[in-house]
Amino acid sequence: VEPCAQLLVFARYVHSGVFKEEFIFCSPLETPTKATDILEKVASFFETENLSWNKLCGCCTDGAPAMMGSRSGFQVHVKNRSPNVKGSHCMIHRQALASKTTLEDEFERYFPEINGDELDLVRNPFRLQVEKIPDEYQDEFLELKMDSSAKDIFDEKSLTEFWPLMINSYPKVTEKALRALIPFVSTYLCESGFPHFCK
Predict the structure, then answer these.
(1) What is the pTM of this model?
(2) Where are the domains of the chain?
(3) CA distance linking residue 66 with residue 132, whole number of Å
(4) Highest taxon of the source (predicted)?
């Protein structure tokens, strides 16, 4: 078997109140692969499909140096085009990191911009203290926290079902939660790419 690098691109988004995950494209990469080579392929796809970099809120990659480099990695190039993008590390690789003794250091390395309070908002807005929320979100957050029917929905639904349902009632808080939640792709996305690659 000849070694070859393949770029697999997936998208995760909310459509009609439901999280969607889709395989987008697969493209061979020349070796050695540079971050600029990867960016060129993704940018070409964005242009062909008329996609806006401004709508991108997260970028999840594997641990390859071309992807993760802090000065010239793919994620750095993506952030140059879309500054609000949050970078994350693929679930499969994160699971491997979980067994390391320096998990806290590794978490900080791969998720430096993720704020613990942001994740607490996503995990359970009904337990989070209002002081942990930025001022511009506090009024809406308090309304959500006091909404007993929203609490009932939260108790019955998964996070990916709950948050899209809140978009009309609590748009600012929901957008903040979704921007933290969407980038975390599932292992399913990584695994679903292999059948496309084998065709």
Answers:
(1) 0.58
(2) 5-114+184-198, 116-180
(3) 35
(4) Eukaryota
